[in-house]
Design goal:
The protein is of the alpha/beta class. It has a single domain, classed as 3-Layer(aba) Sandwich (Rossmann fold). It contains 8 helices and 6 strands; from the N terminus they run βααβαβααααβαββ. A 6-stranded mixed sheet has the order 3-2-4-1-5-6. α2 packs across α3, α4 crosses α6 and α5 packs across α6. InterPro entries: His_Pase_superF_clade-1, His_PPase_superfam, Phosphoglycerate_Mutase.
């Protein structure tokens, strides 16, 4: 495999998004705005020939993928391959909690009471470590645990023998995962204080050598 072109789309807006709740492995349905947004993204990608599609096994990701694939005019792929490898960060005890409150409990003991403060002073990776420390059950994923899982997702794509060089792959992803990818592979070119929008497009180049960011948070 020389390289694959990944079209990475953040899932459509959900009810937990508008309620400002942490939504990692937990789930809430797409809002009507989220459904409409996924259809709009599908229309923009309608003439891209996808050779494969992947997403997490959360309904918000699967529904977004199906809406985008249903709008496609050139691909035979109509259903995504689902895997827990592509899930959002696991927030443990704080799943479904108010986002600002959870990050306060994680960051305040370290002098950084907001997610933005943690990110700008330390890193998004360190935010994962702080949240696991604050989790009374210590089940939230720290940075190492998170990447061990997510890296298996990219390996799953690489191992697809049906994908030829320069193939196009749709991948439905999540907000903090996209931020994490930009921190790890974006070479400092992107403003990580701005969350990727629901339905936005990020383009990656996946090869045996790693991941290269082509664009981020396109609307």
């Amino acid at each position: 495999m020389a390289k694959l072109n990944l079209y990475v789309v953040r899932h459509g807006q959900t009810y937990f998004n508008i309620f400002n709740k942490l939504q990692g492995w937990s789930n809430s349905p797409l809002t009507q705005k989220g459904i409409d947004g996924a259809k709009e993204t599908g229309a923009k990608l309608a003439n891209i020939h996808f050779d494969a599609a992947y997403c997490s096994d959360t309904t918000r990701a699967m529904e977004t993928a199906r809406l985008i694939l249903a709008a496609n005019q050139t691909s035979k792929v109509k259903e995504p391959v689902t895997s827990p490898f592509f899930r959002e960060e696991f927030y443990g005890y704080y799943e479904g909690n108010d986002m600002d409150q959870a990050w306060y409990l994680a960051g305040a003991p370290h002098g950084v009471p907001t997610f933005k403060d943690i990110q700008s002073t330390y890193s998004i990776g360190k935010a994962k470590d702080f949240l696991k420390e604050a989790d009374p059950f210590h089940l939230a994923e720290n940075n190492d645990e998170y990447w061990q899982r997510v890296d298996q997702g990219f390996e799953l794509i690489r191992e697809n023998q049906e994908l030829a060089d320069d193939a196009n792959v749709l991948l439905i992803s999540h907000g903090n995962t996209l931020l994490s990818l930009m921190e790890r592979y974006g070479e400092g070119k992107y403003d990580l204080s701005k969350r990727p929008e629901n339905g936005s497009l990020t383009r990656l180049e996946l090869s045996d050598d790693g991941i290269k960011v082509i664009s981020y948070n396109e609307k």
